[in-house]
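W.,

You were right to be curious about this one. When I first looked at the sequence I had no strong expectations either way, so I just let the prediction run and decided to look at it fresh. Below is the sequence, 142 residues in total, followed by the output.
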Amino acid sequence: MLISGKDEEAITSLGWLRSATGYPSPKSFIEVIEKLEEIRALKLKINMQGLHPNRIRQLSKLGSKYEPHSFRMFDENKRYAILAVYLYELSQSLIDKAIEMHDKQINQLLSKGRKKHQLREGKRIKKIIYLEGKLSTYVELG
């Protein structure tokens, strides 16, 4: 389950889901996607329509504050309610993070391509100027 590890010192699934993903890179993008898949594998069926947005935020914040092992002290209904809302909000946050990472990666690739293009154009322009100079010298002599 999410709140119990293989042994006492192992990181729990919930601990891994909460861990920071780091700098936007293909590796960290894949990690975010794996976390989303882990949450979706739980097949949580959550109906948030009856809950006030403030209550959702409150339960999610409560879920983010507790360490995974601390959830064991709650009765089963309360534990699952807090975890379900927290995981729902976490999945929304991970989707936002994945989109943000994707945008940054695409922008970096476009920037690198633009720089290469400008470098090639600069070399081409220098060559044209050089050839124009040679041609004007040839015209003057000839």
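Here's what jumped out at me. Residues 13-110 form one domain. And, maybe more interesting for your project: The chain is about 70% helix and 0% strand.

Coffee later to discuss?

I.
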